[in-house]
Amino acid sequence: MCACVGKDPSQAPPIDCEGKKGAWLFLSSPRLLRFPSLTPPTSPGVHRARAGCLWPRPRATSLGVRCALAIFGPVAGSSPRFSSSSSSSSSAAAGAMNVFRLTGDLSHLAAIIILLLKIWKTRSCAGISGKSQLLFALVFTTRYLDLFTSFISFYNTSMKLIYVACSYATVYLIYMKFKATYDGNHDTFRVEFLVVPVGGLSFLVNHDFSPLEILWTFSIYLESVAILPQLFMISKTGEAETITTHYLFFLGLYRALYLINWIWRYYFEGFFDLIAVVAGVVQTILYCDFFYLYVTKVLKGKKLSLPA
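-> structure tokens emitted (308 positions)
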């Protein structure tokens, strides 16, 4: 990410950030404008900025602001280099923190915690699709391989580790600790019909034909359909426990908030990632029917059921 602060770029100290893509420019207004490339004047004492460089403010910021930047850094999105939960291509720099990305991450975290507490407190995983949880574990594993190669911020790394750890903890509870309560007879969705096409698509349509980028793209495509086994299971049983519907609601809310985040980033940052947006729209559409039933039934104290 390249950021010039102030009206005169020559005042900014040079920082070598070779190898990253995208350039950003702060003007005196609070808006952030994105340019495909940015090269400052090459006068004596002023180094040429490479695309992807970061120029900090020439004047020291307050201690509180520096601490916040150290903790949060670039907000969590779905880029393997810059994010923790979903949606920006690894070919673009992470944007500034905005309320929609933050609340989206927190909604995602709330969904995971609700599911884990439901299983642990009831000592049962009845009504939970183990196949969906396996797919989510695969999503986070393939998305956050950059944990071994890069560090963005404490917040970013923490959220990645939490998502990965919680996804595998859920799989462990379903398939090992409370295996006797797992309803495998109704969890019969053929996940190979999701994984194989998604794998092929990630090879054909991606931002860069490299292992990490292909795996990141795979995780984005797979996440958009990973909830299908859970919805299929509910449709087969004809109903879902209230706590399970709360889990699904926060999971869908997370995705809806990220859609708003993309609109925000497009307007204020000029950032647009077609792969993440299309996959996110597909995922949100899958939740539309559930949202309607949640509002018309669960919020009125009734049990949720999906059409068989």
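The chain is about 50% helix and 5% strand.
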